[in-house]
Amino acid sequence: MYITTTVPYVNARPHLGFALEIVQGDVLARHHRRRGEPVRFQTGTDDNSLKNVLAAEAEGVPVRELVDRNAAAFEALREPLNLSFDTFIRTSH
Amino acid sequence: MHEALEEFGFRRAASAVWAIVEEANKYVERARPWKQTPEERERSLATLVRACRALAVQLEPFLPTAAARVATAVAGDRLPAPAPLFPRLGD
């Protein structure tokens, strides 16, 4: 069972809408693991978008810096939301 | 629950879990353990502990930490001293 979420743009910090999506993915992953099925649950961020560039310009910081910071905030959802994703991919890595 | 999740019916799956709680609540109201003889009460409470164990299993995909706390609270032949599952807001 392969479960993925959308890979959100990282022009801003995570919002509640994405929390719903990733928690739903987590429910599916835990449910299928518990049934003994092999599961790969993957999420991540889309680091390449015009929105990311515009957000960095508006803030006056390098694009890489903004993207790294916000992508880290997405990955850090693991703790407070108790997520069990197996891999976190970034489209710039 | 499995059927519901197969078609991404998260609300329906969560309702199936909650149905255990609703049934257990109805059972308490029907059985009124506080008015039963000690033998009857023993049986009623055992039934309710089994319901909580089932709840802990079914809750796991949705609330893994809370499910683990429920499981701990109803583990073993002699239950541990009860503790609140969730702290009150503001505590």
How does this structure look, described?
The complex is a heterodimer of chains A (93) and B (91). Chain A has 93 residues and is an alpha/beta fold. In chain A, α1 links the parallel β1 and β2. Chain A has a three-stranded parallel sheet, covered by helices on one side. Helices cover 45% and strands 14% of the residues of chain A. The mean pLDDT of chain A is 96. The longest helix of chain A has 19 residues. Chain A contains three helices and three strands, in the order βαβααβ. In chain B, 65% of the residues lie in helices and 0% in strands. Chain B has one domain. In chain B, α2 runs antiparallel to α3 and α3 packs antiparallel against α4. Chain B is an all-alpha fold and 91 residues long. Chain B contains four helices and no strands. Chains A and B meet through α1 of A and loops of B.
Please sum up the structure shown:
Chain A is built from three helices and three strands, in the order βαβααβ. With 93 residues, chain A is of the alpha/beta class. The longest helix of chain A is centred in the first third of the chain and has 19 residues, at 16-34.
